[in-house]
Amino acid sequence: MRISKCLAVALTAVAVAPCGAQAVTPGGPYFGGSYGQYRIDENGLKKNDSLWKAFIGAQFNNWFGLEGSFVSFDRASNQSSSFETDGWTAAAVISLPLGPNSALYAKGGEYWWNAKSSFAGISKDTDGNDPFWGGGIRFGLTDVIGMRVEYERYKVSSVNLDSVSVGLQASF
């Protein structure tokens, strides 16, 4: 079973490689926004809630770019606990072009956050910074507009936040 999965991945890589070779020159600067859901499972607070983010970045060549964003995680709460955070990110983005305007990508960087939480009757308002990572796919809708679907994992102190979002990106 493991060999067949490895073979499937290898064949997919061979099939996709020519698509990357057809990719156009780098897209340059871009900006956009996304909306999605995140999941928290911490101290009795097991909940999904929404998030939004605004981002700006630059693609320097077909495979490397830098991106910054502001991410706001809405307040997740139940009867005895609550959690919310927002903050700024800076990340490196590694891309695998799939055609002229589409790509798979992975990113990783730092999240500078401010969080308000209440667990077991103890309230905190703290700030700090922790690493985050993620990946996704960008579909080129036109030469300028693309749709992004991404998964990201943020760490806020000892709390892990798993997020899935969909957004639009404009290149200029």
Structure in words:
This protein is mainly beta and 172 residues long. The protein has one helix and eight strands, in the order H-E-E-E-E-E-E-E-E. An eight-stranded antiparallel beta barrel has the order 1-2-3-4-5-6-7-8. The protein is elongated and about 55 Å long. The N and C termini lie far apart (46 Å). Residues 1-25 have low confidence and may be disordered.
| N/C terminus separation | 46 Å
Instruction: Give the strand order, joined by hyphens, for the main sheet.
Output: 1-2-3-4-5-6-7-8
What CATH architecture label applies?
Beta Barrel
Question: Could you spell the SSE succession in H and E letters?
Answer: HEEEEEEEE
Give the proportion of residues in helices.
10-25%
DSSP summary, beta strand count: 8
CATH class: Mainly Beta
Average of pLDDT:
84
Global Rg: 18 Å
For the biggest sheet, the summary is: 8 strands, antiparallel, barrel
What percentage of the residues does DSSP assign to strands (E)?
Answer: over 45%
Low-confidence stretches: 1-25
Q: So how many helices? A: 1
Number of domains: 1
Q: Give the helix/strand class.
A: mainly beta
Q: Outline, from the CA principal axes?
A: elongated
Features of the shown structure:
eight-stranded antiparallel β-barrel, Porin, mainly beta, 172 residues, disordered N terminus, 70% strand, single chain
Helix-strand blueprint:
Layout: H1 2-21, E1 28-42, E2 45-59, E3 64-77, E4 82-97, E5 103-119, E6 122-140, E7 145-156, E8 159-171
Antiparallel strand pairs: 1-2, 1-8, 2-3, 3-4, 4-5, 5-6, 6-7, 7-8
